[in-house]
């Protein structure tokens, strides 16, 4: 595994850290491929039941490393999108385990949109988000034009993308853009507590819930009700459902296995 992604596994949680702090964790080709590999590994490993994505140093991710994109014989935009960002966002949304984005600093451009694609996003009170694309004459990528209007509404999303204004972590919570804003002193403990809680929950049901949420972004009501019914029947045959019911009847805490 490349040193551009640090991987720590503990208590059923995999913490993936973007590790190019001197470049504010901006993506180059090496880091993009390393993150894709790490996410695929998390998908395959049964003992991993929750994932945290965060950044080293002062930033979460400043988006694309423009130096790499502008070098002679460098990486083309077509390669950046089709081989880096699009696969990352698709993996985040289709990986059948909860993914928490822990935003430790600035999240800009693709870095911001990758954070918004995660299942829950927690940010330090000192962190900020910006689309940044219009400042250099580009359009948003990494699913920004898909997720932002659904999270904050058409007008606000349009303003964010066209004006590239900086959004504070608290403003992001207030507009429904992210899940939680936490003071710096409590940030790590809050993220760890949430990830550990998710890792002890019924992973199969959480993964299927995530699939239903994805489908609900494009399904009509009838299709969504049918899908819910099908998934509910399937998950009712799982170990965790039986454990959850038994624990309820026996007035004890359930011990889910993620199966």
From TrEMBL:
Gene3D superfamilies: 2-enoyl-CoA Hydratase, Chain A, domain 1, Lyase 2-enoyl-coa Hydratase, Chain A, domain 2
GO molecular function term, any single one: hydro-lyase activity
Pfam families in the cross-refs: ECH_1
Keyword Lyase carried by entry: yes
Record keywords: Lyase
Superkingdom classification of source: Bacteria
InterPro entries reported for this sequence: ClpP/crotonase-like_dom_sf (IPR029045), Enoyl-CoA_hydra/iso (IPR001753), Enoyl-CoA_hydra_C (IPR014748)
Family: Belongs to the enoyl-CoA hydratase/isomerase family.
Protein name, as recorded: Enoyl-CoA hydratase-related protein
